[in-house]
Structures are given as C-alpha cells and as structure tokens.
Design goal:
2 domains; single chain; two-stranded antiparallel ribbon; about 150 residues; 434 Repressor (Amino-terminal Domain); 2 strands; alpha+beta; Cyanate hydratase; EC 4.2.1.104; Cyanate Lyase, Chain: A, domain 2
C-alpha cells in the first residue's frame, strides 16, 4: 500500500530526474502552476482527467491505487514540524511572526472583522527582474469572509 507522502516523493523525484517543470505540467492539466503544484504535492485532490493530463506531461504512469490517492481529498498541512526548519518556508513563518499583526490590523481596518479565505483563493508566484538581484513576488488573493453574528 502506497501512502500519499510516498506518492508525492515519487512524483517529485521523477519530475526532477526527467527535468520537467511545474509550469508545463500545469499547462497540460489546465490549472495554474501554483494549484497544480499544490495538488501534486498532496495538498489538493485532482479529477481523473487532471491526473491523466499530469501523467502525460510528467511521462509517469500512475497505478489505480495512486490515481485513487490523487483523487482523495487530503489531510492538509505539508509541514513536518510546527515551526518550519526549511529556510525558504521559514521566511514565510518569519514574515507572519513579524508582520502578521500588521496584516491583520490592516485587513480589519479595510474590511471589518473577518478572515481571508484560503479556499476561495488564488496564489501567483512571479520573478521580477531587478538590477540589485531578482525579486520574488508572491500574490495571495482570497475572498474576505466576515464573522457572522448569531
């Protein structure tokens, strides 16, 4: 029996070994590179059609069991520890620790008491050229959900 974590490792190893790019897999799947990457890393479920497209783009055959795993809504959360140890992921943790209360205050001032959805949500990751060194631009775009009174 293959676990979802083992399947993720298989996909990433195959993709890396064969020099495939997430953006190319996403184009075949018909979704954004951010969504497709999250799905193939085990954080979202895919349809049979999306799995077939990803299989073709990756040149990787999936067993029936693996297809079922890819179609199953996952237990979300991809970090192995409460505080991330990977330096790149830790920067986002650090941003939240330092600027989280600022982000919260500014969202509440603009929208009121509520949250930004991570379900009705899009993300975009881009490279911006800069003479002092390329920049990483991350855009998080979530629907505002006000807290209800009852």
């Amino acid at each position: 029996m293959t676990t979802r974590a083992e399947l993720t490792e298989k996909i990433v190893a195959h993709k890396t070994y064969h020099g495939k790019k997430w953006v190319d897999v996403a184009a075949a799947v018909g979704q954004s590179k951010e969504w497709t990457t999250a799905a193939l890393l085990g954080q979202l479920s895919l349809s049979k059609e999306q799995i077939a497209a990803a299989s073709g783009a990756l040149d990787l055959e999936f067993s029936e069991e693996e297809i079922a795993l890819l179609m199953t809504p996952p237990y979300r959360g991809s970090l192995p520890t409460a505080v991330p140890t990977d330096p790149l992921i830790y920067r986002f943790y650090e941003i939240t620790n330092v600027f989280g209360s600022t982000i919260k205050a500014l969202i509440e001032e603009e929208f009121g008491d509520g949250i930004m959805s991570a379900i009705d949500f899009t993300m975009d990751i881009e490279r911006s050229k800069d003479p002092k060194g390329d920049r990483v631009k991350v855009t998080l775009d979530g629907k505002f959900l006000p807290y209800k009174m009852y």
